[in-house]
Amino acid sequence: MNRHYFLLKAISLGHFRQHPWQFILMWAGLTASVTVVIAIYLASYSAHQNFLSASNLFTGKATHQIRGQTTIDEQLYVELKQRFNVSATPLLQANVWDNFKRQHYQLLAADLLLEDTLSSILGQPLTTLTIPLSQFIFSNAPPNALLLSSMSELPTDLQPSSQQFSHQNKSFQLNVLHLPPNQRHNNHGGWGADLLLMDIGSGQQVLNMTGQLSAINLVLTNDKQIELIKDWLPTSYALVSVNAERQALDNLANAFHLNLHALSLLAFIIGLFLMFNALRFSLQQRERLISQLRSLGIASKTIQKLIMCEVFFIASIASATGLLLGWLLANPMLTMVTQSINQFYYDLSQTKLQYSFPQFFVCWAFAVLIAVVCSSWPISQIAKRPPLQLVRTSHQLAHIHQRLLPYWQQIAVTCLLITLCMTMLPTGLIGGFIATATGLLGFALCLPQIVTTISRLSLSTKLSRQPLFIKMLLRDSQRQLHHTAYALMALLIAISASGGISLMVSSFHNAFQHWLQQRVNADLYIREAENSPTSTLLQTLYEQFAQNKQVASMSTYMSQHILWQDEQIKIQSGQWSQQTQDGMLFLKRPARLVWHDVLTKNHILVNEPLARRHQLTWGDSIKLNWAGHEETFTIAGVFYDYGSPQGQMWMPPFDYQRLIGDTKITGVAIYIAANNQADELIHVINKQWPQHHFVITQQQQIIARATQIFKQTFLITDVLNAIALGIALCAISAALMATQLARLPEMRLLHALGCNSLHRAGLLFAQPIFLGLITGVFAIPATLLQGWLLSEVINVRSFGWSIPLTPSFILIGQVFGLSITAAVLGSLYPIWKTLHASARQAGWE
Amino acid sequence: MAPQGKRGWLLFGPHSVATILLITSACSLLAGCKQDSPENHAKPAFNVTGLLQTNLNDLSIFYPRVKTPIPLEWPADHYAHPKYRSEWWYFTGHMSPESSRTSTSLSKQQNLSKPPILGFQFTLFRQRALPPITQKTIHNAWQTPQIYMGHLAITHHLAQRHRAAQRFSREGPGLAGVSDNQQYLHVLDWQIQPTPDGWWPVRISARDQKQQIGINLQLFPLKPVVLQGNLGFSQKSNHPENASMYYSYTRLKAWGSMYWQNQSTTVKGLAWFDHEWSSSSLGANQVGWSWFALQLDNYHELMLYQIRNKQGEISWSDAAMIDESGSRLPLKVSDITIDTLQHWTSSKTGRRYPSQWRITIPRYEIDLDIMPTINDQEMRLALHYWEGAVTLSGSHQGQGYVELTGY
Question: Could you tell me if A266 and A436 are in contact, meaning their C-beta atoms sit under 8 angstroms apart?
Fold first, then answer.
């Protein structure tokens, strides 16, 4: 034990005391890795939990839900209970506004005297809420509500407070009974957000919905029973599988979360490389010491154990630091993630960070384990090698050139073949990420061989005419490959991945802008404000403006949500002018043919995300059902839609009116005649209908807002990309710096042979630049491949958006520049050191 | 008459206690009965004693009271009396597979010495949550302050098993109560479906998939109605307002089908029907009762109950013999001797119930030994009580049902 302690002190502590930057690099690498991964994990996990919690508010433990296109007649529930006696809960749901606190609440009204309510919504009976419950149901006071919340600070008593709420311009008084904190904890139900729970009788009263329900929750486990209920249900109602629907929505967001995790993993791998490289370098520096210890009879296993302990110690500290920093970073990350989710998928108001200490412990242990496992290979290699080989550079050169390079080439070819297969075959999003990862790795593993080949070719072709400086540079590049190969591969991976992401985002931005300019091509868009009284004013405006000379043309919009394949689809229609039609961009089919078809009976258009999700293409038939009326439609075309991954369909007005039976206009687009201004027309509208509830938006406002949303959405991507790139630059610079520092003894010899400072600095500077140059050039095709994979594979499989790749010279220049920058940064400190060190000081320490 | 706390536990207790506890039962015990562990059964949903204690100074005084006999009319009085606080319809019976009995009609000559193989208890309870006078304006059907509960229990004598199930619902927009046009009384899918305009024969149907039990029976009285107490006015304690309206059909022929393990068996047998409504409650010192509804092989029936106080003494009792013609022959306390011969302790709840009795009525030369067909016929539902099929031996053969609460 004493001997081990002595060795530990000699090998580890002594070494790191002399080279503290190596300790710092190892610590920083793993800390940065864990920080990013934990921040993303917590943000993503919390967003997911918040989503489940929010959806549980309405569905609870229900497996199915009966919904109508609007509301449900409560007699349907009565008949359901009498006929099937299934576990079912009638529900009313509405968003209400607290007039005093100026805050939104979700109001949920259910039959609180029903066992099913308590188990399916709340997850457990409110046994201790006897008095409030009895008051709830039949008391003479104003309708009572329970405020269930894990978010707000609540009093611990049950004293009701009378509060004024409003819903759809109607105000009402509620006696709110706060729930004591010890009764708010619920592991089964979904008391995640602020929720007002009422009895259904009072709910119908305050929401003015007597005889109506929003939905019926059911807990159905028997397939036969599910079929019986489906057969029994009137056609205007649908039995929806809550799990399937939740899963579908969750899956959409899962793609987003997976993308985030992939980005964070990139940062993790690069950070891990930083640690790995620092460790390798520290081991190489201690090769002579290890050789001496082995010569003294110390077993290789003992040395291995001691170095592993050293790694474990550093990894433990780094992981703990990373967890702390990740936790701190997770809050702003969650805000950004929630922001993106809100733009894309569903409204998620809650941004509570969800975590548990066991999770932290598992993450800590996992990070330490990965660090130890990654370190075990170089440690075992050094520990096992015979003492004599440890001090012979020739052996290391032979090892890399004769064994590793051919081996890496074989793996590279395999990786690139996997990329090809995963891209061509329907392997899903995971397959897409595997293709991306193997593509990067394949390119990276080719790089050392390319460096060697270029050096050899350069030396062999015009050897006699090359200056000594160039010869030394080329030979050094080959000779130092066992030091630099890993750094170069990591550099290529980092800048290609980062460049690929930037390429995808810039391509997406270009495609989005083009699509936006095409789609939003009217000068003015007018719609009725939400919650405004029902009126036909928009129809009147449309009819009057059709005769107005200031208006060149107009389009109308109508829309309705329907359920199709357990998914909520937005059906759009309207009288569309030629300009509006021209704004639609279609996949794989000329617009002329698409519009020719769609304006004949029973043809529809579907958006690209929906088509991708359900493998639909033009010519396919689909059945749509509305209020018991089912019709078959043929898809005339698939249109680009970067607005949202949610499903949308468009059908001509005659089909829409026949299927939906509604002719109410929900929006109008106005194309202003030449020499007229939008402001003038807005002035006319305001003057003619001074009491209107219109929301009037100009084209530029919509485009500006959409662009802003786009930027907000990709903020999280940009931040992660920047972090990953920052870690990469540090890692690669550090690796190259370590390589150059290892050459300082050579510089001592050159100094002694008469080489001046300039020559020595030139050698130290030129080699990283040479390697950075090769890496930068080779990174360009790797970046293009990454950009293509992210745009054409990952985005299509994640969101259903195909994005034309639009590479730019600026971006390629950035990739190249990053490579050179990393190389320059890595050479600065060794140059400074060799310029300021005497020949004696520059030797091995 | 039946003691109010027995089948009519809803009748008792002050408003503030009964309503609250009733609702609590809806919340907790229904969830609780899903698991059949002793831990869950050890704690009833609410305390029966609490329900039975009387406080006439609270809101219950605003309910209409049963103070004197009320003239009854049929079939109208077979249906609900919604202004009163509590009401129940109670059916018990003993059934045998149709093939096991050769007789096609159940008459005086029916041989009750042949033991039936199935016993059933089916009860609908109604509770009004607010007195009519304090009731607010009802904005919709969900706010109607009527709550219904159903209990179904089947005892399989051969399998020596007893199973019970429960339904619970507010009246709501047709979930429970008397249907439009008085077609049926129900709580969710459990029904009492009378014949239009005449009530008899009445069909009772209830089935529970989870417990795999069910009944679908038709009932027709073999004897005329029996008005318990004084012309149906049945007093429960020394306090004059602790009373209910209560009538019985003590011998009905029953036929139809019963479900056990979800297997249907065509059955016939004899049943008993009680209907009682009131707004009053037990006295503060009363804690439970023992109630007997016995059908003798001499075509007589015996109904008797004893209400106990906290000291374990009999604080109120009533008994009557119903003769062949259906006439009610009241019995004095001094006419009857009841001896408890054995006790049984529930392993699920730990409650100790009397389980074997000897009833002696020298005036009618009756000396009966009463034995449960199965000891464990404990109803572990909203309330924990014992209600089970019994067989008679001794001076007469016969069958019956016994209910024990407050133990």
Answer: no
What pLDDT was estimated at residue B374? 94
Residue-number span of the structural domain to which B286 is assigned: 9-405
Most confidently predicted of B99-108, B339-348, B378-387 = B339-348
Query: Contact B143/A138, CB-based, under 8 Å?
Result: yes
Inter-residue contact A412 to A446 (CB < 8 Å)? yes
Instruction: Decide if B1 is inside a domain.
Output: no
d(CA B358, CA B370): 6
**Partner-chain residue, chosen from A74, A114, A131, that has the shortest CB–CB distance to B169:** A114
Tokens for A230, please give them.
Answer: 């489906």
Tokens 């970073």, residue located: A329
Asked if the structure places residue B398 within a domain, the reply is yes
User: ipTM of this complex > 0.85?
Assistant: no
* Of residues B32, B140, B147, nearest to A113 (C-beta): B147
Binary contact (A133, B24; C-beta < 8 A): yes
B109 lies in some domain: yes
Taking CB atoms and an 8 Å limit, are B140 and A114 in contact across chains?
no
Q: Determine whether the interchain pair B30/A115 forms a contact, defined as Cβ–Cβ distance below 8 Å.
A: yes
Dihedral angle, C-alpha A671, A677, A678, A679, nearest 10 °:
-170
Residues in contact with B362: Cβ distance below 8 Å, sequence separation at least 6, in sequence order:
B335
Between the CA of residue A295 and those of A298, A385, A387, what are the distances in Å?
Answer: 7, 12, 7
Rounded CA gap, A327 and B384, in Å?
52
Cβ of residue A173 closer than 8 Å to a chain B Cβ: no
Res A152: pLDDT: 42
Number of domains in chain B: 1
- Triad A285, A287, A767: Cα angle to 5°: 45
Of all residues in chain A, the one with the smallest CA distance to B166 is A115
Q: Which of residues 115-174 of B touch A (CB under 8 A)?
A: 129-130, 134-136, 139-143, 145, 147, 168-170, 172-174
A126 touches chain B (CB under 8 A): yes
pLDDT at B316 over 70: yes
Give pLDDT, residue B256.
95
Are the beta carbons of A113 and B175 separated by less than 8 Å? no
Residue A115 contacts B, CB cutoff 8 Å: yes
| A111: nearest CA partner in chain B | B142
pLDDT at position A627 is: 64
Between helices A481-519 and A715-741, what is the axis angle to 10°?
160
- Are the beta carbons of A205 and B143 separated by less than 8 Å? yes
B91 in any annotated domain: yes
What is the distance in angstroms between the Cα of A101 and the nearest Cα belonging to chain B? 28
Cβ contact A45:A354 at 8 Å: yes
Q: How far is CA A777 from each of CA A2, A266, A447, A826, B121, rounded to the nearest angstrom?
A: 54, 21, 11, 18, 89
Residue B327 distance to chain A (closest CA, Å): 40
> What residue type is assigned to position B309 of the chain?
N
The pLDDT, as a whole number, for residue A529 is: 64
Q: What is the CATH number of the domain that holds B384?
A: 2.40.370.10
Across A586-590, B55-59, B132-136, which has the greatest mean pLDDT? Answer: A586-590
Please answer whether residues B15 and A113 qualify as being in contact, where contact means their C-beta atoms are separated by less than 8 angstroms. Answer: no
Q: How far is A583 from chain B (nearest CA, A)?
A: 51
Percentage helix, strand, coil, to 5, in chain B? 15, 50, 40
- Rounded CA gap, A243 and A222, in Å? 15
Amino acid at the residue B305: Y
A745 neighbors A839 (Cβ within 8 angstroms): no
Cα–Cα distance, A315 to A54 (Å, whole number): 38
How far does A202 lie from chain B, in Å, by closest CA? 8
pTM of the complete model:
0.60
CB contact under 8 A, B20 and A113: no
Cβ of A8 under 8 Å from any chain B Cβ?
A: no
Give the residue ranges of chain A where pLDDT is below 50. 1, 119-132, 134-135, 150-158, 180-193, 531, 842-845
